[in-house]
Amino acid sequence: MKFVGRRGHWWVPPCAAFFCLLGSTIFWRWHTISKDHQINEEIRAREVRLVGAEGEQIGIVSFREAMQMAVDANLDLVNVAPTAKPPVCRIMDYGKFRYEQQKKEKENRKNQKVVELKEVRFSATIDEHDYQTKLRNVVKFINDQDKVKCSIRFRGREIMHASVGQKVLERVAAEVQDIAVQERRPKLEGRSMIMILAPNKTT
């Protein structure tokens, strides 16, 4: 079925179209269930509090009157506050509104920082140069707003002197205390000791 609607030529299967009569205005519309808002004929209220296309407060009018105003403006009637008594509806270009909304959501997701858990491995017998290199990595990750898992793997009889490894991790925590907090203090798990640092929220 092909016909002319208020926004051009539409093809509508007979089962998906319905007939809508507003005063003397007769037109066909594609019936869709909006995910976020009730629009046009999806609105079931007898009367609505209407906001115009420019944001002006028109007041309480019948649904038919509000729908006719939207049709005359070649725009949509959108229920923006369905729980209000009566519901608040606004005349707008819903397609443009959804496009702008999705664009804004996409930008927000792009700007969101995903916190990752980075791992820096130390050793109980680490030398000073290697320690400083790994410490710089910890600082870099924390400054990037990531959490850091500092770990020490004990080999052979080193496990008998786990306190030596604990002192290494405690030194790391002390040296980054201005930018990080210990989310998890050094704890022995099997042959590994693990400490987790998180960015300090005040930095």
Automatic annotation (TrEMBL):
Source species, domain of life: Bacteria
Stretches that traverse the bilayer: 12-30
Database matches in PROSITE patterns: IF3
Domain Translation initiation factor 3 N-terminal: 39-108
Keywords for this protein: Cytoplasm, Initiation factor, Membrane, Protein biosynthesis, Transmembrane, Transmembrane helix
NCBIfam families in the record: infC
Subunit comment: Monomer.
Family that this chain belongs to: Belongs to the IF-3 family.
UniProt-recorded name of the protein: Translation initiation factor IF-3
This protein's encoding gene: infC
